[in-house]
């Protein structure tokens, strides 16, 4: 494959990355579990039950659906769809991943690793990991419900499903979609996601405090100071625009509402 | 199993082979596409005004087409880019309107960064938009411009029309939220998740997010949008893409949409606070409490003709959220076009192309 230039194409690269994320999605969950606080044992236990039930359901479906025994691609996709890890990371975990990427950025990458490690032991970091795991458990339960429903419907009337693996796949996707969307509207899901966002933001702000303290010691401008500078520049630009307008269109134009009322809020 | 029913069963090996053949062809097809081929927003246009990151362009007239209308300014929002209206040559509202003789302009807000944290909705409407309208009026020799607002840009256009009615000839809104709690009137469970999600956040959650990032990160908005269609997100890069890749035109369309989706700018912090708290959470626009530059915005001051285009299966802006406008505007010349399909479908669906452009043009032509 020495001549393979496919990865030089950005879309090909992103496509391959998406494939990898899709089919190997379980690893991040276990990473999160393993790096979380000691009291995450309960979450671990719940997740183990999810996996056990998933395997049990798969076996039941294997008996109920003729195509589940086949190794055609649709059947293969069905099998993968049944994988709790796949489901947990489908769609609903995008916010989770995004928050983690945003807060775990490169801000500290230039600092000594020991300081980074210290940060990771802070309460905020643990809270973020807990929130992430709790959020994933909520989506895992949605997967369980979808799987139970699919198994029940398939088992009740297997003949009505036709014999095409594509039919099974479509039905499974429809059920999974319905369960996920219904779950997204529950208080449990919304609260778990709100706590996840808050935990990520709290961690980010605590991280900034630490970095700014380090910057202050080394006479380096802080993020807060740069933000203040931007605020001043913005006000000046506004004033300049207003004056330019007044000059161009006369005094009548200068009587427009004074733009001082907003902008301080942030 | 008997020989009689055996032929009804699919051949797993053949099916598997077929998929992997498609997969290989997909990979090959994708790898052969040059980045330049995935062109969005490609209709030729000329820069006529710039203020920092904000640019105003005039679309070049199509050869042989005479201008049939006064100037129309396309206003997109800060969540996504205006290129949605010009995604590809055969699915471009911009090209369709130009072909009918509309004198067309577009404002591009650029890519806001942390330096734009303090830019408010007041600024976007009362500063940048107002300057664009003035420039167009001066260049076109008119004293009024028609606005064509899209989604959040429709809210910008609404705010501008209410605060500068003397400069707005016609107001055209597409997929625009007006009643930010209109989702409560929509029984479809797949609609209005964004409204629900935002209402569930506490003000402090939003304020601290803006404090931490300086803006509403485009990545967060993108992930929330992905979350709204979870299984579509799951199957998009395998089943859907393999299917699309079987045809070069389909594949290019797929990739153009991907390019548009990936081009999701950050929403400046101060404007995001207003958008999420004052509009989404507090619904200030229809309550008459929303302020620009310290003055209340009264939707009854919208006295010019209004065309309101919404999508019946819009999961992002539920139809009741858009339809609410009729109750509040101060004009009796109010028209609605309800389109089948979803939010983005208004602009990219082949079915919608003629309906939207004809509907907008015909409505506009009658009003000059």
Describe the structure concisely:
Chain A is mostly helical and 266 residues long. Chain A has helices spanning 10-23, 26-35, 41-64, 73-82, 84-88, 94-103, 113-120, 123-156, 165-184, 187-217, 223-249, 251-254.
Molecular structure report:
The complex is a heterodimer of chains A (266) and B (368). Chain A has 266 residues and is mainly alpha-helical. In chain A, 74% of the residues lie in helices and 0% in strands. Chain A folds into 2 domains: 10-220, no CATH class; 221-266. The longest helix of chain A has 34 residues, at 123-156. Chain A is elongated. Chain B has a single domain, classed as Alpha/Beta hydrolase fold, catalytic domain (Rossmann fold). Helix content of chain B is 46%, strand content 17%. Chain B has helices spanning 12-32, 93-99, 121-140, 152-163, 193-200, 203-213, 218-228, 230-244, 248-262, 269-281, 284-287, 319-323, 325-328, 345-348, 350-367, and strands at residues 45-51, 54-59, 71-75, 86-88, 91-92, 103-108, 145-150, 168-174, 215-216, 267-268, 291-292, 295-296, 306-311, 334-339. Chains A and B meet through helix 1, helix 4, helix 6, helix 9 and helix 10 of A and helix 1, helix 3, helix 5, helix 6 and helix 7 of B.
């Amino acid at each position: 494959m020495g001549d393979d230039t496919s990865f030089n194409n950005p879309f090909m690269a992103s496509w391959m990355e998406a494939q990898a994320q899709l089919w190997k999605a379980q690893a991040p969950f276990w990473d999160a579990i393993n790096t979380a606080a000691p009291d995450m044992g309960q979450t671990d236990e719940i997740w183990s039950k999810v996996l056990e039930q998933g395997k049990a359901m798969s076996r039941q479906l294997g008996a109920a659906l003729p195509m589940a025994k086949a190794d055609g691609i649709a059947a293969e996709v069905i099998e993968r769809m049944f994988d709790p890890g796949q489901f947990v990371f489908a769609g609903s975990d995008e916010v989770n991943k995004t928050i983690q990427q945003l807060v775990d950025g490169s801000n500290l990458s230039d600092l000594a690793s020991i300081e980074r490690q210290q940060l990771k032991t802070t309460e905020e970091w643990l809270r973020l990991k807990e929130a992430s795991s709790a959020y994933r458990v909520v989506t895992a339960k949605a997967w369980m419900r979808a799987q139970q429903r699919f198994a029940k419907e398939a088992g009740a009337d297997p003949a009505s499903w036709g014999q095409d693996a594509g039919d099974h796949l479509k039905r499974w996707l429809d059920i999974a979609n319905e369960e996920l969307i219904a779950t997204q509207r529950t208080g449990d899901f919304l609260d778990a996601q709100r706590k996840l966002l808050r935990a990520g933001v709290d961690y980010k702000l605590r991280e900034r405090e630490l970095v700014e303290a380090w910057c202050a010691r080394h006479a380096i401008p802080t993020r807060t100071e740069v933000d203040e500078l931007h605020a001043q520049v913005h006000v000046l630009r506004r004033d300049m625009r207003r004056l330019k307008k007044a000059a161009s269109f006369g005094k009548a134009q200068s009587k427009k509402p004074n733009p001082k009322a907003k902008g301080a809020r942030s | 199993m008997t020989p009689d029913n055996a032929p009804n069963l699919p051949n797993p090996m053949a099916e598997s082979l077929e998929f992997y053949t498609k997969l290989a062809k997909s990979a090959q097809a994708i790898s052969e596409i040059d980045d330049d081929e995935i062109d969005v927003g490609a209709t030729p246009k000329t820069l006529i005004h710039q203020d920092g990151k904000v640019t105003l362009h005039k679309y070049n007239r199509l050869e042989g087409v005479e201008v049939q209308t006064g100037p129309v300014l396309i206003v997109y929002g800060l969540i996504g880019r205006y290129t949605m209206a010009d995604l590809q040559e055969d699915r471009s509202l911009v090209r369709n309107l130009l072909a009918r003789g509309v004198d067309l302009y577009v404002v591009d807000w650029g890519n806001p960064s942390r330096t734009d944290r303090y830019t408010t909705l007041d600024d976007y409407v009362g500063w940048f938009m107002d300057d664009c309208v003035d420039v167009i009026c001066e260049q076109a020799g008119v004293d009024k411009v028609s606005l064509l607002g899209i989604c959040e840009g429709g809210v910008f256009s609404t705010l501008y029309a209410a605060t500068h009615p003397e400069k707005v000839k016609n107001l055209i809104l597409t997929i625009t939220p007006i009643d930010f709690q209109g989702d409560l009137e929509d029984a479809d469970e797949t609609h209005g998740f964004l409204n629900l999600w935002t209402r569930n956040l506490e003000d402090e959650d939003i304020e601290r997010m803006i404090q931490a990032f300086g803006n509403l990160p485009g990545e967060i908005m993108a992930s929330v949008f992905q979350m709204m269609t979870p299984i579509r997100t799951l199957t998009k890069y395998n089943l859907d893409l393999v299917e699309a890749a079987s045809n070069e035109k389909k594949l290019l369309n797929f990739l153009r949409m991907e390019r548009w989706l990936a081009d999701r700018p950050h929403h400046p912090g101060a404007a995001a606070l207003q958008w999420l708290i004052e509009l989404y959470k507090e619904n200030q626009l229809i309550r008459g409490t929303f302020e620009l530059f310290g003055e209340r915005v009264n939707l009854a001051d919208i006295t010019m003709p209004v065309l309101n285009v919404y999508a019946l299966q819009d999961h992002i802006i539920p139809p009741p959220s858009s339809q609410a406008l009729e109750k509040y505007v101060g004009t009796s010349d109010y028209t609605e076009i309800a389109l089948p399909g979803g939010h983005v479908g208004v602009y990219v669906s082949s079915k919608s192309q003629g309906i939207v452009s004809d509907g907008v043009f015909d409505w506009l032509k009658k009003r000059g």
